[in-house]
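Hi everyone,

Forwarding the result from last night's run.
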Amino acid sequence: MTPEPAAAPIRILLADDEHLIRGAMAALLTMEADLVVVAQAATGAEALAMARALRPDVAVLDLQMPDLDGVTVAKTLHDELPTCRTMIVTSHGLPGHLKRALTNGVRGFLPKTVSVEVLATVVRTVHAGGRYIDPQLAAEAISAGDSPLTPREAKVLELAAEGAPVEEIASRVALTPGTVRNYLSSAVGKVGAANRHEAARIARSRGWI
């Protein structure tokens, strides 16, 4: 009998702004016979450019990068390159982050504390069309509930958390200052906070912004 040809290795794009972590992941994954790291990116924009040029099978994305976060990159890849599966690895796995990731096509979500064996297994699972969500993160997401904030409320609260005054927020989101104040007041009430600063802290701690 003629032996079946060996399956092509799974081609991986790694995106993480922490060079040491990214390099370590690349070195460890490359030790797996069926995996090959074809590109490494330090920013979301680099990841998108490399993905468009190389069309990897799986993109392993850090959640927080200097320009575009991993979920934003994943959504773009989901829309433009649907054959490229995406997964998030993070040190900041909050319930809101997980729900947003799943909504935007991410198929794997796990902390950076996992072993290389688990990481490699998740890459294979995601490549095959499956999903993997870290069990603890999944349990926390279920108990936390959905964000009560509308997209506009979340956006203005996020800008307020950065210290932007109302007038600047209004300019950045193309709203009147009065409308921005209304959104902030609504967000404060929905999260049960005393003021916008406490509301931003609560929302950020739950991954809603």
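The chain has two domains: 10-143, 151-205.

Cheers,
N.
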